[in-house]
Amino acid sequence: MQGGERYNSISDRLREEFGRKTVKLGIDAGFTCPNRDGTLGYGGCAFCSEGGSGELSAHAEDISGMSESIGIQIERLSGKWPDAAYLAYFQAFTGTYAPVPVLRRRYYEALSDPRISGIVISTRPDCLGEDVLDLLEEINRDHFMWVELGLQTIHRATSDEMGMGYDVSDFDRSCRRLASRGIRVVAHLILGLPGETREMMLGSVKHVASMPVYGVKLHLMNVVKNSRLYGMMPGYTPFDSIDEYVELVTECLEYIPEDITIHRLTGDVPRRYLVSPEWSYKKRTILNGINRRLKEKDIRQGDRCLRMSTEA
C-alpha cells in the first residue's frame, strides 16, 4: 500500500504497471445477456439497469465503430488526464456472451488500437465455456487483462429473489478455472441487496477473500429507474445514511487480505437514473468518509486477516 493509503487501491497498482494514471474506457460492444434474451429469462437481474450497467459506455456495435468509440472517450477525458494510459473495458451486459469468433473480433479490435494498453472484461460466472476460456488465456499471454465476475452475493435466497440465474457455485468454479490459467479475476459484490443483513454481506466478503482473486469491487446497491427491483420494491432504501454505509465498508476492508486490489468502494449511477439511496451520487463524500473512518479507527485492509492468522 502506497502514499499512506490504508487499502490496496487498483489506481496505485495500475500506476506501478504502466507508470502513469490509468483509465478504463467503457465499451458497449453490442452484447446481451442470457438473462435478457430468453435463454434464462427476460429483463435481466432485478437490480440491473436497462443499459446493463453500461450507461457511461461508448457504443461500438460494429467493428468499424470501435476506434471511434475509443477516440470519443479519450478526447472527453484528455483534459482531465492528458497523459493517461487506457484500458478497454467491456462493461455493458455480459462481456463474454457471444460466439467466440465475434468475441475475438471485438477484443482484438480494441487491443489493436495503439492508445489501448490492456483489456478488462466484465461477465457472468456462468458464461465462460472452455472455448471462451481458451480465447481469454490466449489474450492474457500477450496483453494486460483482468476478468470481472459478478458474484454480487453468496446467499442463494438473495440470488433467487433477484432472478440472477446463477449462484456462488458458478462463481467458485469460474474463478478457479480462470485463476488456473493465470488470468486475473476481480470479484464484484453488491452491498445492500434486499433482505441481507450486515452479517450476510460480511459473509460474502469473507468468501471472496478466500478465493484466488486479484481484486474486489464493493458496489453500493443503487435502486435505478426502470429496473425490475424498482417495480418490485419502489420504496426500498438499502442504507439509511452515508455513515451506515461507511461503517460497513471499513469493516469489509478488514477481512480482505492486503495483497488483493480494491477496485471500488461505492457505486456510479448517472443521477437521472437514481432512485435510492438519494445520496449515492455523492461519491467523493462517501470515499472521504471511508478514508476518514479508516484513519480515525486506525484500520487497514486485512487487519482482521492478520489477527485471525496470529490467533491461529
Task: Provide a descriptive summary of the structure in words.
This protein is of the alpha/beta class and 312 residues long. The protein has a single domain, classed as TIM Barrel (Alpha-Beta Barrel), CATH 3.20.20. 38% of the residues lie in helices and 18% in strands. The strands form 2 sheets. The chain has an 8-stranded parallel beta sheet with strand order 2-1-3-4-5-6-7-9. Strands 8-10 form a two-stranded antiparallel ribbon. Strand 6, helix 7 and strand 7 form a beta-alpha-beta unit. Helix 3 runs parallel beside helix 4 and helix 9 crosses helix 10. The longest helix has 14 residues. The protein is globular, with a radius of gyration of 19 Å. The chain starts with 9 loop residues before the first helix and ends with a helix.
